[in-house]
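DATA SHEET
Item: assembly model
Revision: 1
Owner: S.N.
Input lines:
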Amino acid sequence: MELIGVILPDKQRLVSVIADILKGKGGIHLYLFLIGLVAGFYGIAAIFIKGHAHTINTSNLVPWGMQISTYVYFALLSTGCTFVNFFGHVFFEEKYRPFASRIIFVGIITAVAAFFSLATEMGRVDRMYMFLVSPNPTSPMFWMALWYSCYVCIITVEYINIQRGRHSVRVMWGAFFIAIITHSTLGSLLGTVSSRVYYYSALMPIYFLFIAFLTGCALTTIIAAHTVKIKRLDEAFHLTPFVILLKVGLGLALLITFWRTMTGLAGRLEGSEVFSLTLINSFVFGIVVVIIVPYLLLKMGKSADWLMFVGGFIMVTQLKARNDLVVGAFKIPVFRVYEMPEIVHYTPSVYEFLVVAASTSLVALLYIIFNRSGVFDVNTGKEVN
Amino acid sequence: MEDRDILEIMHSDLQRALKKPRNQRRWGMAIDLKKCVGCHACTTGCMSENLTPPDIHYRPVKEEEIGEFPNVSMRFLPRPCMQCDAPTCTPVCPVTATYKRDDGIVVIDYKKCIGCRYCLVACSYGARSVDVGHYYTGDMKGETYEVENSGEYGKSFKRKTHWHSPIGNARKCHFCSHRIEKGELTRCTTTCLGHATYFGDLNDPQSLIVKLIAKVNVFRYKEEMGTKPLVYYIV
Amino acid sequence: MNVKLSRRTFLKISGTATAGITAAATLPESFLSWAESAPEEMKQVPTFCELCFWNCGLIAKVQNGKVVKVDGNPLSERGRGRLCGRGNAALGSLYDPDRLKTPLINIGKRGEPKWKKATWDEALGVIAGKLAVIKEKHGPDAVALFSHGSGGAFWKHLLKAYGSNYYTAPSFAQCRGPRDVGFTMTFGTEVGSPEFYDFGQSRFIVLLGSHLGENAHNSQVQDLVHGLERGAKLCVADPRCSNIASKADYWLPIRPATDLALLLAWIRIIVNEDLYDADYLNRYASGFAELKDAVQEYTPEWAEKETDIPAGKIVEVARELAAARPNVIVSGGRFAAWYGDDAQRARAIALLNALLGSWGRPGGIYLPAGGGVPEYPGLPDYPEHTAGIPKLDEAYPFALSQTTTSIRNAAITGQPHPMKGWLVYGCNLMKTMPNREETIKAINNLDLLVAIDIVPADIIQWADVVLPECTYLERHDALSLGKFKKFEISIRQPAVQPMWESKPSWWITRELGKKMGLEAFFPWKDGEEYLAKRCEAGGINFAELKQKGVLTMEEKSAPYITDQNQPTFDTPSGKIELYSKQLAEKGFDPVPKYKKHPQPPEGHFSLLFGRSPLHTFSRTTNNFLLTDLVPENSLWISRKKARQLGLKDGEYVRLQNTAGVKSSGKVKIRCTERLREDCLYMVHGFGVHSGGMKRADNKGVGDEELLAGYRIDPIMGGTGMRSNFVKIVKEG
């Protein structure tokens, strides 16, 4: 199987792209991402060298913070890309084809970038091999690790297939279902925790799936719009699927967020007051800003630039919304003693933001470099079973 | 009740239990809230015994005010780990680092724990903490006792850097399992000024603790969550 | 309650069985694990605690030359194997990096010190030199010692060898002195320290403000809880519902400063309704008729108006209390320096106990066992005192020991004779004594101020020389003699070597003594030899004492009055004096008379203070284990009042007293239902202003800063420090 030129960029073109970058002809956004990458990896190194005590703001009261929400976010993005890939192929074949390889590739690298954030969160990353040595089948986290590995494998196969022009429908369906399983397992990781009312819900796996779809749509819209602009494709033709998917995504997100908030408010379990505490936030931010505003923005225009803006808007707001989701469960301490506050506030530290920067920049840089080296224009698009 | 010091009675209960094989013991604790005066000796005794770092308290004491002036009173509730029979923390650990031992204590294997903190999220009582590597005295190395071995779980762990367990691990009350194995009662039991803490083998019908909890004025904290805790409160 | 623990049990329960942790030969369980070697052996050293004055026996566990854990010593009656919240935090004191490390000499100004690190030789040389000069110019009686702590015995010895008689403990005039005098006027003796309260056998216990449990008087708390468990009834008279009040059958939220009214009303009910122990009084007491006459004006209705407690309640409690006689106790508490008439209030408590026959009875105040250990043999006699030196405490005729009040006064005024040198051992005078300005004035008149301490407390800012003493885990000290129901002897011995340049008091005083030419008074080779010789002289098995930590002498134990064991009263009449002629002769009330104390003016509150179970005033405010739990004090205020004033829980405010002085720090508000609306409450000891104590510096507020005035008890020189009215100033 040919790797270079098909799955990985052609060597010569890659070299010329990098030479361009080094000469300063990369474009401002690329250099910004480069700075982000360097700063981000400095942050990650600092976390490993200095230890959590001096770098991270999570504590016994807030054990999961921005690092976990970043991990969740990137996992969402990856799953979303796979969903869009599936719906794109199945329902919008021609319109979608130019973007397939790009979107799957981004699906892979976001999954990998998610791991960087996760690695900085673990107390003892060097012990990850314990997943193999003494796994615990009752733990959603174990299953998530397992399915995640399968997922990365299968979307890599999907990518290879697309690149080689031998797109297998079976693999595509397989990737789709494995994405669903993986991501709903991630949702169940939160949803099965009965001691945190903010998490405990049968809706949680579904919530993750719908939000993944929305966020994935947003990211893929940006990719598609960007590609359309560069390659001067027909906007109206190629971008329609993404607008439709976005609208569907926004609708699904609205539905699930609404019901999650409602059932939470209706509950009278210990800790349910966190839903009313965060009501303004979940309503104003969780619904209006994240969902309704983008919908209105969509109505305002359909051009590639505008769609890139809308996609970016959704992505940024979703990042904050994920943080609210993860941290919300810890707002009220389970057992309040000594000087513990009644409502716990958590602000991520600088290093946690740097980790986000690292993951984002990594994804962006890899995509830009691969894109510029023309790897994604190789496929000839033959459908194979 | 005889005027013998309850420590002596519980001590003989303990020796009797240690003669049985480990899987026939079931360690439980009872705390008499009538006698707890809110002195927090158990909290600091535990901190001293297990050499816990800042912000980690295996056994804090909650003080609750009841009523309105002048009809007001207080309740003091020490909260060790409940060592639940149906814990919410052990099913979620991805690497089986925490599990319920055959003698009833929910233990953490410091060599396996990866520090993912899922168990902290899952505990309904907030009884678990994560050791991120804080020291009381900044980074005073050299003279500090904080890197010494606390002997938890009968093993030797020195908190030298953040790549040394138990830093990075979850930590919690383990009924002083290192003391029990040597035939000593838990630290909180032996230091309780109000003589309010009782400890013993719940499988032994002759032990003091079993006689105390078989009454109507006994409750368990958050029992409705179905966790089946092994710490009983007497009111 | 007595613990019958055999020696074998003692070894096992306290974990001192020398089995240690068996180092099972473990192959490294995982080839990727770091540095997990087999656990080492732990050495166990019995000693006693110094985190507070209760001195509970403890066992230090040493590993690798470091103390890693502490456990209680079951043989010690003071703790019975338990350690309180502070005792367990021993390591926070031993390994406190802010500890004094070397002797320091102040080359700056008093109050704005510039420290020069000195060798012991240098520092002690300066002190010896200055002391010699003072002796020449003013005589040795111009030097005084303030002492608190187990090493104080050596300093007292040094002072007496030097020729001065002026050793004082703030714990008299600023703490339990009034109580001791009140009881001495009545029964001829004080109630001990630790006190001889027999809570464990009691059927009715009365506490006046004594917040046992929050002041963790170890064995006393154990006894009290045990007594309650056996069915004792409890009445607590306290403006605040303390922790122990929550277990009381009667909590009387008494108006501050009116406790004497309550006591006198109770006395009246008991004498009028014949509820006293007539037999007992017939045999042992005198002055009943005069007492009865004197209390007639104190009716329950009158008391209700004073104390804000319903008259019916007052009567009910008195009757219930008397019904349980003689196995009752009206506790004298401990800290009694409240309003300036405290000796009389303590006398009222003593009178109540006398009427109910509780002195020498089970459940009341037991008769302590006698006993002693001789001093080091062969010491020369102390120099004779020049007759004609006016007594410092002539002003306070019934003071049982030298008061700090008159020593400070002498330093300020030079009357009745000048004070030129102070040795301050373990007393943080700036926070102990009321009115900081007066203390500073006194200090500025001194030629020498030496502070001997463990941490850089506020007092060292004013010292000329600072000497670092090592902590209790690093030193030998004088024997601790406990007179409880049995007599017990406790040893202090070092668990580890002293850190940095800190030294034990036996060494410091010996070296200083040598420089002062007093070598003959310090013949011991080291602390161990000092103790060994004393034990030898007293016929005590020193090796056994070292190994067990505590030896109990069973003989001479006779806590209760029986036909064979009759009490003696060291009063002028030889009986319990219900009517005190000696007080009358000196112009004081022979039977306490009620004096109304001022209540807070409009917009102000009474500022009450007390203790936290996790702190011992400023001594522990830098202990890193304890500050992890309680880093600062908070201001308790009634929730209703807080709402009226618009204050929120957790808000930081300042306090301002009636003289307009504002507190130098801020304190956190704590809203509570447990307090009367006219009071505020805070824990004493915070508001430390000493940069060297990094965790304690500037945390919280010290109530003593806001004392606009204090009243001196004319009977014994105690300084009443509770008449403190403040208002809350919101931070702008």
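QC remark: The mean pLDDT of chain B is 90.
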